[in-house]
C-alpha cells in the first residue's frame, strides 16, 4: 500500500511541476534537434526513469525466485 501511495505522490508532484514549467525548449541530441514543451520533456524523463527502475527491481525479483526454485 505504501509504494502505491508514494507513486501517486510522485506523479502528482511531477504533474504540478510540469504544468508550471510548460515553456517550449529546444532539445539537442547528437545530430537530432527538435522543439518541445518542457512539460513533455519532464514527463518523458520521469517515465523513462520509472521504467528503468521497474526493470531493475523486477529482474532482481525474478533472479531471487529462480534461485529459490533451484
How would you characterize the overall build of this protein?
This protein is an alpha+beta fold. The chain has one domain (2-69). 73% of the residues lie in helices and 17% in strands. It contains 2 helices and 2 strands; from the N terminus they run αββα. A two-stranded antiparallel ribbon has the order 1-2. The radius of gyration is 17 Å and the shape is flat. The chain starts with a helix and ends with a helix.
Short structural summary:
By secondary structure, this protein is an alpha+beta fold. Helices cover 73% and strands 17% of the residues.
Number of domains: 1
Please identify the oligomeric state: single chain
Mean pLDDT, to the nearest integer, reads 85
Encode the helix/strand succession as letters: HEEH
Question: How many strands?
Answer: 2
Strand and helix layout:
Blueprint: H1 2-20, E1 24-29, E2 32-37, H2 38-69
Antiparallel strand pairs: 1-2
Helix pairs in contact: 1-2
Using brief descriptors, characterize the structure shown.
70 residues, alpha+beta, flat
